[in-house]
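Trying the structure run again after the queue cleared.
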Amino acid sequence: RPAAEARSQSRNERSVATTAKRGLTRARRGMELCHSELDKRLKFARAPRTIGRVARFLLTEGNVLEVSRAAFEENSRWFNVKFRCEVDEAATDVVSFDMEVGTPIPRSEWASRGIPGT
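Done. C-alpha cells:
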C-alpha cells in the first residue's frame, strides 16, 4: 500500500522535515525515513503497539530498504518484523511501504541478533 495513504503531514511539516534532513547522507536520510514510517505504522496499526526501541538499518544503495530480520521492543519484549521501504531518488520521501509483524524473539536469541538487554 502506498505510504502516502498513511501520511498526515501537511506541506509545511514535510518542508520542515526535508530541511532538517539536508545535512544527512543519502543513506542516513533513507534510514531515517524508512524507520520513521515503520514506527508510525506500528503505532497506528489495527492492533496498535507501544513501541520502545527499533533496530535500525542503513539504506546502503538504491531506493529500497528491505529487511527480513528487523526487531522492535514492546513492553520489554522484542518482536520480529520484516519490512520493505522504497524512497524516491533523493531519499526525501517514502514512495511505498509494507511490513509484517512476526512472533516474539526468544531471549536466548537476543545476543546473536544484537538485541540489547542480554
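The beta strands are 64-74, 77-87, 94-104. Worth checking whether this holds up in the mutant runs.
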